[in-house]
Amino acid sequence: MSITGAELFVKALKEENVDKIFAYPGGNITDILNALYKQNDIELILPRHEQALSHAADGYARSTGKVGVCLVTSGPGATNLVTGIATANFDSVPMVCFTGQVPTHLIGNDAFQEVDIVGITRHICKYAVTVRKRSDLASIIKKAFFIARNGKPGVVLVDIPKDIQMEFGDRHYPESIEIRSYKPNTSVHIGQIKKAVDILKKAKKPVFLIGGGVNIAHANEEMKKLAEKSNVPVITTIMGKGAIPTNHELFVGNIGIHGSFASNSAISEADVLFSIGTRFNDRITGKISEFAKNATIIHVDIDPASISRNIVVDIPIVADAKVSIQAITEKIDRLNTDDWLKQIKEWKEKYPLKMKSEGLTPQKIIETINRKFDNLIVTTDVGQNQLWTTQYIELDENKQLITSGGLGTMGFGFPSAIGAKLGNPDKTVISISGDGGVQMNIQELATAVAYELPVILCIFNNGYLGNVRQLQEFFSKGHYSCVCLKYDRNCDCTVAKNVPKAGCAKKPYSPDFVKLAESYGAKGIRVINEEDIEKAFDEAAKNTKTPTIIEFMIEREEDVLPMVLLGNPLNEMIIEK
Amino acid sequence: MLKKRCISLYVENEVGVLAKISGLFSGKSYNLDSLTVGTTEDSTISRMTICLTSDDQTFEQIKKQLNRSVEVIKVVDFTETQIHMKELMFIKIWDCSKNDKTDIFRIAQVYDLKVIDYDMSSFIIECTKSEEENNSIIKILNKNYPNRIEVVRGGNVAIEALKI
Lengths: 577, 164
Ligand SMILES: Cc1ncc(C[n+]2csc(CCOP(=O)(O)OP(=O)(O)O)c2C)c(N)n1
Ligand SMILES: [Mg+2]
What we know:
The structure holds two protein chains of two kinds. In chain A, helix 1 (5-15) packs parallel to helix 7 (137-149), helix 11 packs parallel to helix 14 and helix 12 (261-269) packs antiparallel against helix 15. Chain A has 22 helices and 20 strands. By secondary structure, chain A is α/β, with parallel strands linked by helices. Chain A has three domains: 3-169, Thiamin diphosphate (ThDP)-binding fold, Pyr/PP domains (Rossmann fold, 3-Layer(aba) Sandwich), CATH 3.40.50; 190-350, TPP-binding domain (Rossmann fold); 362-553, Rossmann fold (3-Layer(aba) Sandwich). In chain A, the strands form four sheets. Chain A has a six-stranded parallel sheet, sandwiched between helices. Chain A is globular. By secondary structure, chain B is an alpha+beta fold. Chain B has two domains: 3-81, 2-Layer Sandwich (Alpha-Beta Plaits), CATH 3.30.70; 85-160, ACT-like. Chain A, domain 2 (Alpha-Beta Plaits), CATH 3.30.70.1150. Helix content of chain B is 32%, strand content 41%. The longest helix of chain B has 14 residues, at 98-111. The relative contact order of chain B is 0.20. Chains A and B meet through strand 6 of A and helix 1 and helix 2 of B.
């Protein structure tokens, strides 16, 4: 018996164990939506904007390890996905996006709501394809999930014309697929591992530098074992944070232009840099010629193109993080790193991560979160709010950080928290945003209310596009151009602490986030004093079926410190203003 | 070291693969000298010959980027390999006098070019040579028949030589 393309679609997704689809309707996916209406295994989630939809699917994928699935209509539905696709793919998140397309005979006609979405996304995703024949539908969907999940995970886009959704054809969905042009490496070269271990064994000042690859490979347990067996300190990138528990005595901190002094110093002085799953992005290396200049560099990555791209590597190992960590652990013995660890401890004590200002600081807010919740997912937006979170958040087996590291997408934080909560109903999910970025997807409050998702949305309100303001403070002589979100366009009429200058009218908040929350049927709390942080979280935790906004009125011109100025080596940091 | 390189690329014969590969070069600011493509003895596979100029490090990265593309079946580096490489070129020459005509036949004979079409005053010449030889032929004809020639070139096509 033959079935329609839409029916085959539903069958295929069930066989791929998809339990949720993030979907937004439109003319060219009505047949699929109709087929999904007739079943109960897959739940449809309806966010309020396709960009937010893609971030929600992304947060769902990052927090569950499953493939995030998006389904949107052709034309504007598809173009609204673009930022989300680039965001997820940049951070190696497995996601499959289905877009409706105009019927095949109209493709190329500039038909209503026709765009060449495959052409638009080709270079920001792992693979993009239009289904041109009903008979290809099954194998293309199979291929899409395989490519999204395997090797370095990423985003696959499948564009399905309307006539193919309607056409009757074979019901068969293959169990496996062979792709001759895509055969990711699953083993590890033992010779290279042996070489690497021999070098590591001789090191006096070794460090592990761990990137997002370890979290993606779910190799945290293995990484901890390796660190403990070898007695080698662990430094992480923002994406690698949590690779081992942050309270572990071998954990040093984050590396990078806003990393910790101890981490950046250790990298600069190390004699062996053993890195796993990082791209050596420009945000972590500082001045490239000075980066780890005393070190022999070993680099494990599943993507050969990441190796020796930004820095020249001595021992390349192309392999999955988990497999290689296990292989290294087997061969390594305990190193005598006592002096080195003592030196790192001294650096840590000399310049600990610490905010100098009094009162309601981001540090105190994040430390309250650390104290109060132990089964937690934190998502961040982008900007100072993100950097502070990545600096101060404590992570372990039960606490996960989700952030847009590669693309740095404002508007990511809140919708990704919605996806994370849908995938982890038993965990507390907190989203930390700035007053700027949160407005890029604030409409998702409606989604959180509708699905009864008690996400806690913390807004660090500094009245500025703070991260850019800080750059202008350091690099543009304090010319605050295009960054003020407060009383007037230039912020001339405001001073610190949200008090308007004499002679300036005190205008209301724009928006009033508390009222905004209430208008959506969510809860809203505004915190002005340090003493009220704790209470606000207690209050929010009581809302088990509704989202809560907590708006924190923070110091307006607080900076993210320490900081490496552009072009400087990593260990030359501005510690305080 | 900046030098000329050549890659033979096996790709899936699918819609969009050429856009993917050429876009990869432009998107990542890789310099591309020529790119040719056509199907192979297996109609599901296309083969591209890509010529480019780059330093060693960029070239390594280009090969890796090509290799990681899902549509790419195989990347073969021809830079240090014995190969046969030719480029097809057509040249049209017009407004030829009687003397010009005699000359053109002579030039064709000396340089081993093929006159494939001619009428009272125009010629079409076919030429299958290396890129450098084609360059010099254009130079000569340009000098002899300024503003009277039209050139179309196909880009390099390469195949590995037989092992001796
Ligand atoms: C979509 C998008 N547009 C612009 C930027 C550039 N950008 C990075 S941080 C930032 C300011 C963010 O301001 P806010 O959300 O208030 O956070 P804060 O830095 O104040 O904590 C901007 C504009 C970006 N990362 N993403
Ligand atoms: Mg702000």
